[in-house]
Task: inverse folding
């Protein structure tokens, strides 16, 4: 019976991962449509690039354990909203909010939660806008509402997060003190640069030359 249980668990988790992949496919299409439409009308495209990932089973199990949840598909479905993940990288900070608004107002997208780490950065300096959205996936036996995490950030925020992630793993989650302080200082400098770049872009759009 134990073998039958684990076979069933594997089958269920595989199915859930597949449905999450469909949700990611749908979100990627929605975002690509927005980006291509902006290009078509020769407007500034608020999307620089988009990436996606499905959380690895080991990482799902680690997160369940960390949160004290039982390692079954019901827990995953009910509590892990970021198995399906899409990351949108934008040129400017205002673009981040534009894309979030354009996605959130689509009829089949329900924004369940918004975490604005741009307005309120994490203590380490991490900045991004996180949305948990729910979208319908149409399957042979009906429709399933699937949750996904959409992370939106500028190129600068993405650059910083990638470096922080590398440092975090290199030092196995405990980087030397000075290094962490420097990382936070760099995040602040990057945020200032984002603001200056945006102001420059705004002036260019208004037709005046930078001073
Ligand atoms: P991965 O490999 O990217 O999927 P949690 O911390 O996940 O238990 P919550 O509320 O689900 O709690 O997460 P939150 O704060 O919304 O952030 C989730 C994701 O944001 C993380 O996913 C990262 O992708 C990203 N993130 C959050 N904080 C940081 C940070 O300080 N540095 C970097 N580089 N990324 C961050 P996972 O699941 O941790 O990892």
Result:
């Amino acid at each position: 019976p134990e073998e039958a249980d684990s076979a069933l668990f594997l089958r269920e988790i595989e199915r859930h991962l597949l449905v999450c992949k469909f949700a990611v496919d749908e979100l990627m299409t929605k975002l690509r449509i927005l980006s291509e439409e902006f290009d078509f009308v020769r407007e500034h495209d608020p999307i620089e690039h988009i990436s996606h990932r499905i959380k690895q089973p080991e990482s799902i199990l680690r997160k369940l354990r960390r949160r004290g949840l039982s390692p079954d598909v019901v827990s995953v479905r009910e509590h892990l909203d970021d198995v399906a993940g899409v990351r949108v990288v934008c040129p400017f900070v205002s673009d981040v909010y534009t894309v979030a608004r354009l996605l959130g107002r689509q009829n089949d997208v329900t924004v369940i939660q918004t975490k604005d780490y741009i307005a309120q950065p994490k203590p380490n300096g991490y900045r991004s806008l996180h949305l948990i959205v729910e979208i319908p996936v149409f399957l042979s036996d009906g429709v399933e509402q699937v949750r996904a995490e959409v992370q939106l950030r500028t190129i600068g925020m993405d650059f910083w997060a990638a470096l922080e992630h590398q440092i975090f793993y290199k030092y196995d989650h405990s980087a030397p003190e000075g290094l962490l302080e420097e990382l936070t200082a760099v995040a602040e400098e990057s945020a200032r640069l984002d603001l200056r770049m945006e102001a420059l872009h705004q002036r260019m759009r208004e037709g005046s030359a930078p001073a």
Remarks:
- The mean pLDDT is 93.
- The longest strand covers residues 142-154.
- The helical segments are 2-40, 57-66, 73-79, 93-104, 155-170, 177-206.
